[in-house]
TrEMBL record:
<feature type="compositionally biased region" description="Basic and acidic residues">
    <location>
        <begin position="220"/>
        <end position="232"/>
    </location>
</feature>
<dbReference type="InterPro" id="IPR045853">
    <property type="entry name" value="Pep_chain_release_fac_I_sf"/>
</dbReference>
<protein>
    <submittedName>
        <fullName>Peptide chain release factor</fullName>
    </submittedName>
</protein>
<feature type="domain" description="Prokaryotic-type class I peptide chain release factors">
    <location>
        <begin position="118"/>
        <end position="134"/>
    </location>
</feature>
<dbReference type="GO" id="GO:0003747">
    <property type="term" value="F:translation release factor activity"/>
</dbReference>
<dbReference type="InterPro" id="IPR000352">
    <property type="entry name" value="Pep_chain_release_fac_I"/>
</dbReference>
<comment type="similarity">
    <text>Belongs to the prokaryotic/mitochondrial release factor family.</text>
</comment>
<feature type="compositionally biased region" description="Basic and acidic residues">
    <location>
        <begin position="200"/>
        <end position="213"/>
    </location>
</feature>
<feature type="region of interest" description="Disordered">
    <location>
        <begin position="179"/>
        <end position="232"/>
    </location>
</feature>
<feature type="compositionally biased region" description="Polar residues">
    <location>
        <begin position="181"/>
        <end position="199"/>
    </location>
</feature>
<dbReference type="InterPro" id="IPR017509">
    <property type="entry name" value="PrfH"/>
</dbReference>
<dbReference type="Pfam" id="PF00472">
    <property type="entry name" value="RF-1"/>
</dbReference>
């Protein structure tokens, strides 16, 4: 199962772009822990270094549905601004959304039709008399390229396949950008309240309770010590 999701700071200020960059790192770490393959297919940098306006990620794996239940929606970070020290706000929100009904075009070299031709322009006898140039057409999309970069027909075929694949990828990227723009319009304001996940602190580490006896014993020792100091 494949899914494409977008992490977005929406129209939030620079602090939200900071949160988006931090959340992306945690998101990818957890995806890896859940044996989910990922590919960042689009990234829009933020207005400052190490910040992020949005990232679009392709996910592949069997556990995607359960994994995304803990992520899709609004994400809250509780902390003081790292850019405006005197700013009073402490709750910052970003959003994680699924891009639906977006299919990636499968590129198969077997779908390419080749035609050979003589190379055009100057280049001596080899160019004028031998059919080393290649016109390649990707039948599903009708994209076509003409390659005469080398004097080898085989090498020109390899180059044409690569260029056609790049054209198909560019077409998919344009579709994706259009979808992202529509999603952006629908989510211009990231929904606040009832966040799916909440983070605290600038390291964005998962806050897992430590229930070990050692920590509890140390806590009791500190309480006893403080109590004795109060008596004295």
């Amino acid at each position: 199962m494949d899914k494409i999701i977008q992490i977005s700071s929406g129209k939030g200020p620079l602090e939200c772009q900071f949160v988006a960059a931090k959340v992306l790192k945690v998101f990818l770490e957890e995806a890896k822990e859940n044996a989910i393959e990922y590919e960042i297919i689009h990234r829009e940098k933020g207005d400052e270094n190490l910040t992020l306006k949005s990232a679009t990620i392709l996910l592949k794996g069997k556990k995607i549905e359960n994994f995304l239940k803990n992520w899709l929606g609004s994400i809250c970070w509780i902390g003081k601004s790292t850019f405006r020290k005197n700013h009073q706000r402490s709750n910052w929100f970003i959003g994680i959304f699924e891009l639906e009904n977006l299919e990636k075009t499968e590129f198969n070299p077997k779908d390419i039709q080749f035609q050979t031709a003589r190379s055009q322009g100057s280049g001596g006898q080899n160019v004028n008399k031998v059919s080393t140039a290649v016109r390649a057409t990707h039948l599903p999309t009708k994209f076509s390229v003409f390659v005469q970069d080398t004097r080898s027909q085989l090498e020109n075929k390899k180059i044409s396949i690569k260029r056609l694949e790049e054209k198909v990828q560019e077409m998919d990227l344009q579709k994706m950008e259009k979808q992202m723009q529509e999603t952006w319009k629908n989510q211009t304001e990231v929904q606040r309240g009832n966040p799916t996940r909440t983070f605290k602190g600038t390291d964005f580490k998962k806050n897992e309770p430590d229930l070990t006896f050692k920590k509890k014993r140390n806590s009791l020792k500190n309480d006893l010590k403080n109590y004795k100091n109060e008596l004295n």
